[in-house]
Predict the 3D structure of the following.
Amino acid sequence: MLSRTSDGRRVRRVLALWVCAACGTSVVAQESPYLYGIHDHAPSPQEYLNHFTNGGATGWITATVAVGCNPAETWGVDFRSFSDQGHTVICRINNGYCDSGGTIPLPDQYANFAIRCANFVANSQGCSIWVIGNETNLAGEWPPVGSHKPYVSPQSYAGCFRQVYDAIKAIRPTQKVCSQAIAPFGGPYGTGSVCGYTHDAQPLNWCQYMNQMLTAIQSSGPGPDGIAVHINSRGYDYADIHSTQQVSAAGQMLYFSFYVYKDWIHYGIPSSMYDLPLYATECNGIYSWDGTYPDSEPDREPYKPGWMQEIYAEINRWNTIDAPAAGKPVIRCVNMYRWSGDPWRIDGIPQTAQILADLDAAVAQQYRWPDNSIFNSDPPTGTNLAPYSLDVETDSVYGPDWPGSNAIDGVVSVSSKWVSAATAPPHWLALDLRGDRTVNGYIIRLAGAAGEPTAYNAEALAIQTATSLSGPWVTEGTIDNGARAAIINRSYVAPRTVRYVRLYITDPGIDNHARIPEFEVWGVFPGYRGDTDGDEDVDQTDFGLFQACYTTAGTPIPPTCTAAELNNDDVINQSDFTLFLQCLCGEGITPPISCLR
């Protein structure tokens, strides 16, 4: 729940969940590639999660557990009911909450808390991402001394984090230990009271607090392995998401709505940590979804249709356009606060059906965070499939001599390249590979490969895929080419099935023209229709094999004859023969591209 400090700031507290689980070793699973998520794991958000699954996606869950700081306690929690469905659990480990000891304990208990956290991790299953504590820029999260809550500085939190990080890594070295999320719009403020305690002043704004905290963690040793953030708009309207209103906080002008996520990145996170993943473990319109809470907030309105879709669209734009262009970190999940259990619940309010319908619409876009780990920089193997494309589209061309088709003609030359218009990026080149293809990777030959100055080489690119040329496009991985290499190789760690692929350029280099002599898509050549012996021509040998494969309706097709079944009607007859004749060109003669399977 959210209670309030004396100066009107909100403080969240959640009922502790004391759940015992069987001991066991947690297995590090691949993180969900999708952005969608929900907060909390109990009461179970299964109804919400079903909307991910029904839309063909997996998602994320923020779990919060209060473990205390008794080093003799060893119980954990079994999250496998969620992880076994393919969802990723992020568990926030708290000492307690506002009225039960604070999110981290007093400094003299940091060592005991570290042991307790390690014991909890060792005896929990189905989770491999752990966030330590929560929002210590808010007084309600501080541990009390008697009837007073003393200030927890960023440096104090960093000292606690260091001990917990080291203790968990000692027993689970491959799991991620992440820094806490800082409360948006929290600080500076003076002394006051919260949860029945008086409290000290807090002199920093939210970004200053985050920056000092992360700097202190980094200076004390390794970690964190990721950064939790909370992002909120001030209401549930499209305009609230894109509000550019700013406020002055401790001498700094900061966004006062959803663009707080940009401030976290620009001002809160040191640039030396830009390689870390960000996890948005809480997100909402800051007021309750039905607009009824908190009672003291003026001008509240309930959820408005379309907010959910635009939240995910905005983060996808950041991940696929802004972040790669600026070399900034991407956000891997956006977990809505919350399904059930307090006044901020989604379940059981008049707006539930609309929210879930909007969630379905957001999931249908299949937004995924860019995962460069699916690629390596080895040259891909197979056949270059790009020249066989059915269609090539671009955002623009410099003129009729520089069409997108130049980038797939197999010629690396100054005179045979795609050149975009000089408009501001992004620029893109999209291919329809004519059918679902097994793709092993890509080779991008930039201007320097054709003999031009390396200054013309694009410096920030992404590889995207989709289910149609009109999108929606999903970023497979981003490419930082600040070194201005002339040839970029990217191979999938595991081959993927792709039909529509797009080269997306956010920094073309010295000017606004994208220059691509060749964009190559390497994979398994699909073969030609009628080539029953697999020698890449259709000749008399194939004709003889085809004749031997004739069947009648209802007769099973022998495995040796599957290549002769050309129109997918489970019978080999005159209709297939008509298609065969269109590709019968003779020995050693390449059939037309239209005969590709």
Remarks:
- The domain at 374-523 is CATH 2.60.120.260 (Jelly Rolls).
- Residues 307-326 form the longest helix (20 residues).
- The CA atoms of residues 34 and 57 lie 7 Å apart.
- Confidence is low (pLDDT under 50) at residues 1-27.
